Write the structure tokens for this entry.
Amino acid sequence: MKIDIEKIKEKKTTAELLSFGLINLDKCSGPTSYQVSDFVRLKLKVNKTSHFGTLDPKVTGVLPIALGRACKLTGYFLGEDKEYVGLMHIHEEISLEEVRKAIEENFLGKITQLPPVRSSVKRAEREREIKEFEILEQDGKDFLFRVTCQGGTYIRKLISDLGDNLKVGAHMLELRRIRAGIFNEEDKEYPSINMYDFEKTVEEYESGNEKSLRKIIIPAEIVSRVYPAVKIKKSELKRIFTGKPIGYLDLIGKEKFEKGKIISVFCEEVFVGMYKVINGEDIFAKGEFVLQPIID
């Protein structure tokens, strides 16, 4: 069931968008992802922000930022595929064919990665999937590459491991994330905005012109493009908001999903929450996160 995100956006005030929205930010080189997220929080004067997947300080590109209560959805976006373009330097002369062969044989599909020493996670081997890894250009020992991978993959480590496999060594010179799940740098609806233009947009908003700010805020209901949307009857909404599970009789139409599937639930165009399908005798799904209405 498709949810009309633009229709939802039109009906919301700017304050409502700021309390449950996202911004597709283009991170510059230098600050940490946390610093960028906090920069957005301070500029927009919202109570909370969070980012969808850490980028190293020197890495640029797509860094979606959640605003206000949309921070509760961060975990639902983090595991989505990421896409990068970067430049690696191989320490000794080697042919393009040798590099491509090593990638095809050892660095496509499911691989095992040990996080780098300087990382925020426990150093234990983890399985990650490399969907695409191609060499775009070669200039001597420098190779321009593109990678599409499972969220949580360390690209710098991927390049280092490739160098070890080739027995010549390699390191990453530059890296840019061009896509994070459904968010990309050239999206037709919500292209990423650089930090300079973001600041200008906030200045316009503070001067009374909210048009540009509204344009860049993405309603958090866009989570329905990642997790299928299911609609429930309006008569059951109050009961559902008390934390009760969703029964088959609460649904509009017949829905069939495998047990354990995560879905987004709506009542008309109102986002209710994120649910896990149970497929019990009477219970269809149980809530993981229910967005309680704000009572004035």
Observations:
- The chain has a mean pLDDT of 93.
